[in-house]
Every structure is written in C-alpha cells, then in structure tokens.
Amino acid sequence: MRVPRARGAAQHARRWLVLSCAAIVAGALTPLTAQTPLTTDPIAAPLDEARALVGSSDPVAAQRLGEQRLTRARASGNATELMDALEYLAWVRIGRVEVAATHALLDEMRELARIESQPLWLARVLHAEGVLARRQGDTAGAIEHLEEALALRREYADQAGEIQTLNALSILRRRAGQLYLALDGHKRALELARVLDNRVEIAESLSKIGRIYVEMDDLEPALRYYQQALEVIPPEALVDRAEMLADIAGVQIAAAQLSPARQSVDEAIRLARLGSNPQTLATVYSRQARLLAAEQQPVAALQAIEQSIELGRDFDGVRSVLVRRLIRAGLLHDNGRDAEAASELAELLLEARRTEDLLSERQILELQGPVLLAVGEPAAAYAASQAFNAIDRQLNSSITARRMADMQLTLDRREIESQVALMARERDLQSLSLERQRLTLWLLLAAAGGLLLTALALAWRYRAERGMNAELQRRGEA
User: Whole-prediction pTM value?
Assistant: First the structure.
C-alpha cells in the first residue's frame, strides 16, 4: 500500500501559531512605529507559558491568557500593544480552526491597521487570513491573501515576515503540484533566514525543502535536509524535534529503512509525550501507522491511524483530515474492508478536488484503482487509473522540464565558467609575455649600460696612458 507522506496542515498551522506568537513576544513582527516593550505589560510574564500551551493538552489556558492580555491592551490605549494582543489571540484560535471568532479578531486588526496607517500590520492580517483560508481548504483565497502579504512585506523590507509568508505560500504551491516553484520559494526563505540568523526559520525552511524532495521521490536529499533541520532545533524544543523525527521516519519508511524508522518513531512518540502535545502526537501516530503497515501489521496500523485521527480532531485543518483519512482508507483496504475503503476514497476525492490539492488527488486515485477492482467495479477502477496516470504525467512532465532547464543552465554556467577560465588564462599568458618582454628590455639595458661603462673605462684608461706617455716624453727631452 502506498500511503501519503504529508505532515498535514495541522502541523503547519501549529508551527505558524508558535512562530507568530514568538514573533509577537520578541518583537520580530516589527511595525513601522516602535513597539512598546513587553516588559511593561503585567500580562507579558506568562506569555511564554501561553505559547507553550497553544495546541497542547491545555489550549484553553492559552486562550484565557490571550484574552487577559487583550483586556489589558484595550485598557492601555496603546495601538501597538492592542495589535499584538489581537494577533496573539487570533493565532490561538487559528490553531483550533475557530473560523468565526478568528475572523472577528482579524477584522478588528485590519481596521486598526487602517486607522494607524500601518501597512506592515495589514501584512500580518493578510498572512493570518491566508493561513486560516488554507486550513479551511480555500486554496485560491489563501494564495490571494498570502501574495498580498508578501508584496507588502517586500515593499517595506520586512524580511522576517517575508520568510514566513514565502514558506506559507510555497506550501500551497507544492500541494498544487508546482513543486519547483515551491522549492524556489522555500530556498529563498532559507537564504533570508540565514541572513537574519533565525534558527527557527532555518529549520522550518530546511524541513519544507525536504518535503518537496519527498514528493519528487528523491529520498536521499530529502533525508539530508530533514537531518540538517533536526540539527538546528535545540534539544529543549521537544515538540519541534518530535515533528522533525516524524518527518525523518516518513522518508526512512519510503526508503524501506524500517529499523531506523522504528527508532525515529519511538523517539518522536517519547518527545511528543514529554511535550504534552496531542497535536504532534497525532502526527507521530500517523507515521507509526505507516511503519506498521510496512511491517505487515495492518490491524495494528489501523488502530494507530484511528488513534491519530481522534487525537487531532480538535486541531486538524482540512488537509490534515484528508491525509489521515487517506491513510485509514489504505489500511481498510489492507484489512480486507474494501467497501468501506471505496466509500471513504470517493468522499476524499471530492474534497481533494474542492481544495485543489493535486498531490492528494493523485494519491487517492492511485489507491482507488485497486480498491474499486476489489469491490467488483473494473470500469470505475480503470477510470481511476487513467485519471491517476494523467496527473502523474502532468507532474512528471513539469518535473522533467524543470530538470532539463536546470541541466541546460548548468551546462551554460559551465560553458561560461570555462570561457572565463580561458580568458583568465589568456590574460595570464599576456601578463607573462609582457613580463618576459620587460625582463628582456631590462637585460638589454643592463648590457648596454655595461658596454657603455666598459667603453668609458677604456677611454679613460687610454687618455691616462697618453697623458703618462706625454709626461715621460717631456721628462726625456728635459
């Protein structure tokens, strides 16, 4: 059984929630006016605790702390403090996909940005709206919001914000099958993160690049990027390390490295439990389900994915739900429950097409063929197989075209480099020739000088001898 290897939208949304809250606390999401130091806010002290609770076993505590901070900000009359408090609470609610409550907060943030004439505040609103739309499965709306946010952040040189928006936008492009366009976006984000020395965003961008190589079935660089990301994450970041180990396990399973995958999954489960984060634990259990399926334990694998679905119920966005249900459908097929699997896949196919998730659609169609054949629907199975082949050809042709373009660029670059090297060699030869000519000239001048000195010495000696002879003659005559 081929099961999807996606982390799921819930993990992306959780990461965005944590990053955004961290940015608020650290002042990284800098508006055009100076921010009020958070140390003056009596509610600021518990913010690290609140950030840790977001998406954890006690998300209510995070929301309560966010509401306390918002109350304090409203009383202070400080626009910057109010904007930060609204954004914090908005991300808490995005993490739980509370759509109506989130939109109310975002509308207030948008109005505040308009009143204060702060374009970067508006960019923060647009970014949050894009992530919320993505979690709801509204791909077109998410892309529109994120592209507007990216344009504003570039216009006002907000590099920290640009990194986040580039990664969010590239996730959508990856799901739409635009793998190389997404890869370019993540690599640009990685470049900016290294310039800013932002270790969180460096790890985030590295993991996203690894994810794209997984989609290309290029597992060696995928594993390398994930391992680099794991090295960047500090040991105390238990949840982030658990998520990265889950991603590494996914690559190891795809590469049939089951023993290392078992070690990665076990360690990820341990860290997720230590971090008290059911959302991350849900992701790890989905990897465990894939591992158990690869180990020919379909019953245990089905139990693991159902546990994953239950744990992520309060946190999962549209795509996470789709991915986990797709894994479950494949395991239903492995357990001989083909009628249930066929019904599940039919629903998932409609959802994948509604959200314009081409990669998930391809995976669903790939699994749907054998399932429909097993339930006695060969015509429908053939149609699913044909649809899968069409999408696969589309993706492969775009990948092949890009690789050919990259190869041509490489050849052109090497040709230019060889021409530059040849020109440098010619310059060196010309320089050597000029140096030789200069040395020859100096030698000739030295020889001419020597001859001149010799001639002068001989002339002086001749005159001296003539004078001496003349003196001797005068003395002889005397």
Answer: 0.69
